């Protein structure tokens, strides 16, 4: 049986650091308020004129270097983001040409915080059936251009940061190592709990001055509802995935959860009976980078020596839609 594995990993974070104290100068908040609710200390913001695909290019080049590959060896691109360069076309096409490529397929996946795992599962399926042998999977975001830095937008704006992560997926020479199982879920009944009203296609036109005046440009979130469902679904999908892989919680060397809220991940770890240090965390430095958070965290965990050959690693994410997903792999 063909199994896929991660051949290379890369990340890129903009240089500009924005601390909680910086945000407190823009609207009514404080370092203490943000830390208590999210665990975030600072995040990175891209400069004006920088596209989401620019961050993706940097992360992709690092992943290619890490894999010992050239861009010309890629067969396909899968790009996860909720902050594309433009409403259309897809960002995979923008990244393709920036990599100096032509003709290979490129697709976008719009599953927000779960986007990277959905993309990973898609790449895994392509490799398993022999359709492609070298797939670039990218998660990248420039949230800072789409946030309201006002008192009204505070609850959302303190959470997000910019960044990009990328992996190269290809066949595993060892059938016991690589991606073991993927589990993808959604419940659209919660779609309006965390959403962006802008570009309401039912309206003629889909964007008006009235919509802008009432704040349709900015994302909205019912944070308590997100928290309530997330702390249930995250442990649930982890247990589902481990059962499918014939593994137990104690067999896992490292859990890499989506970096949305430190409190959510702490609750999930406690519910599973897992030591908090086994749930990797870098949200303190970067905030929520949505589709980019998992590959960024994977890149750092590898550099820190937390993952070695044969390590069992669990990816898990929960986000808008609601969507949630889990992947289990043996490194």
SSE-based structural type: alpha/beta
Number of strands: 13
Mean pLDDT over the full residue set: 96
Q: What spatial form do the alpha-carbon principal axes imply?
A: globular
Helix-strand topology string? EEHHEHEHEHEHEEEHEHEHHHEE
Q: Output the CATH topology of the largest domain.
A: Peroxisomal Thiolase, Chain A, domain 1
Low-confidence stretches: none
Proportion of helical residues: 25-40%
What's the number of structural domains?
A: 2
- CATH H level of the largest domain: which superfamily? Thiolase/Chalcone synthase
- Cα-based radius of gyration, to the nearest Å: 19 Å
Arrangement of strands in the largest sheet: 1-7-6-4-5
CATH architecture of the largest domain: 3-Layer(aba) Sandwich
- For this structure, the quaternary state is single chain
Summed up, the helix count is: 11
Strand content: 15-25%
Major sheet details: 5 strands, mixed
CATH C-level category of the largest domain: Alpha Beta
What do these coordinates show?
The protein is an alpha/beta fold and 331 residues long. It has two domains: 4-171, Thiolase/Chalcone synthase (Peroxisomal Thiolase, Chain A, domain 1, 3-Layer(aba) Sandwich); 178-330, Peroxisomal Thiolase, Chain A, domain 1. It has helices spanning 20-24, 31-38, 52-67, 91-98, 115-128, 154-157, 209-213, 223-244, 262-272, 283-286, 293-303; strands spanning 4-12, 16-19, 42-45, 76-80, 105-109, 135-141, 163-171, 178-186, 194-195, 220-221, 254-257, 312-319, 323-330. It has a five-stranded mixed beta sheet, with helices on both faces. The chain has a four-stranded mixed beta sheet with strand order 8-13-12-11, with helices on both faces. The protein has a two-stranded antiparallel ribbon with strand order 2-3. A hairpin with a 3-residue loop joins strand 12 (312-319) and strand 13 (323-330).
